[in-house]
Structure formats: C-alpha cells, structure tokens
Specification:
Blueprint: H1 13-20, H2 28-33, H3 42-50, H4 55-62, H5 66-85, H6 99-114, H7 126-140, H8 145-152, H9 168-183, H10 190-195, H11 201-231
Helix pairs in contact: 3-5, 4-5, 5-6, 6-7, 6-8, 9-11
Length: about 240
C-alpha cells in the first residue's frame, strides 16, 4: 500500500501567507548558526540565493565553503517540503531541534534517488517518496536520532541490511503498517486552529503536533520494533 498524496496539511493561500509572516527568534537553528552571522537560520542563506547571489558569494559572506552552502540550501528545501506537508508553510519554529534529522534525510534521499547498488528493485520516485513521508512523520514525532537512522540509512557493502528500506520485505510491511496508522488519525486542521486566534500560534501548533504524537506513538514504536527484528539492524529487545 503506497501513499501518494496526503491532504491533511493543505491550507488556503491566505492562511499560507499569514503563516509565512510569523517569525521567532532564538530557535536552536538560529543559535547554532548565528556564529556564521545568519540573521534567521537556514532561511537567511536562502534569501541571499533568491536575491541572485551565487553559492561562492554566499560562502564568502558566511565564511564557509560553497559545498556547505549547497548542503544547507538543499536541506532547507527539504524543510520547506516538511512544513508544507503539515500545513506549516513558512513557520520555521516548527523545525526547532530537528535540523540534524533533515541533513541526514536529505543525504539519504539523494543517494536512494541516484540508485544504490546491490539493493532490491525499488522505484526511485514512488518508493523514495514514501520513505520521505514516513521520515517526516518520525521527525514530527521526535523519534530518537539513533533509531531514526535505522529507518533511512543507506546500505553499504559492509552493512547491506543497515536500514528497514534496505530490505524489501521489511520495508513493505513497515510502510503499510505506518500508513495504516497515520490514515486512521484525525486531527484539528491548521485553519481551524488559526480561526480561534490563539495568543501564541506557534505554541498552539506545537500542541497539535504533541496531540498527534500521542495518538501514533505506541503504534510507531511497535512497528519499529517488529521491523527492527525483521531487518536485524539491531538485536531485538527480547533476544
């Protein structure tokens, strides 16, 4: 069972524009990157790119290498996709403390799309798109970093079964169970929350994420453990 599109995150254009106006200071992204003189986290680098500056120009301004600029811009595009998926377009405060997950996921997705030798015949578009959506959900659920890698890690000659995605039978069972769980969850829409005019929209949306997490967390954990045992990426807890 593949999941092509999910509609629960869609919001109107008016709502999207209103949300993009909301900003917050001192998120972990900003604190981590302020040493490089970033005004507003990853977004500042994107603003420079949109203004016509080259990667070399931006690297000179930020005192870093052009390759690092490209890595960060690529991760930011993935962050934007994540925000759009849940109806949080432009609300970078929803990404607080998750930047490392996006960097790892972006790197893995690029490798899978390019093709990985000695793997099952996965579809680099449809199957990788499913992987991205599931990874987004685990990021939203604040899944532990070391366990998150068991889902997305790219296999190598030394570790051919390094992740759930690396083994077709494990992945397909994991994927189907995951989407069965998320499809069964109902949650308040972003527009409904905004219609209530909460005093702190960012806090209200984080509460929405927390409520969603409480509904899926047990199923996510069970699905992870079953898949972990099937892939043998780690010893089963009861072995």
């Amino acid at each position: 069972m593949r999941r092509k599109d999910r509609q629960f995150g869609e919001v109107s254009e008016k709502t999207r524009k209103n949300m993009q106006k909301i900003r917050s200071k001192d998120t972990s992204i900003e604190v981590a990157l302020r040493k490089r003189l970033w005004h507003d986290g990853y977004r500042y680098r994107k603003d420079l790119k949109d203004a016509g500056f080259t990667d070399d120009d931006i690297a000179g301004m930020m005192d870093c290498k052009p390759g690092e600029v490209r890595t960060m811009l690529s991760a930011l595009r993935l962050m934007d996709e994540y925000l759009d998926e849940y109806g949080y377009s432009g609300m970078y405060t929803q990404l607080d403390k998750s930047e490392d997950s996006f960097l790892k996921l972006d790197s893995a997705l690029k490798k899978y799309k390019a093709g990985v030798a000695s793997m099952w015949a996965y579809d680099p578009e449809a199957d990788v798109a499913d992987l991205k959506l599931i990874a987004f959900d685990y990021i939203r659920a604040n899944f532990e970093q070391t366990l998150f890698r068991d889902i997305i890690s790219v296999p190598s000659a030394k570790k051919p079964a390094s992740s759930f995605f690396a083994k077709q039978e494990v992945w397909e069972q994991f994927r189907d169970q995951h989407f069965a769980t998320t499809d069964s969850v109902q949650e308040e829409s972003v527009e409904d929350i905004m219609a209530k005019n909460p005093p702190d929209l960012g806090r209200a949306l984080k509460a929405r994420d927390q409520q969603w997490k409480q509904k899926v967390e047990e199923s996510f954990d069970d699905n992870y453990i079953q898949s972990m045992c099937g892939s043998r990426t780690r010893p089963c807890p009861w072995w």
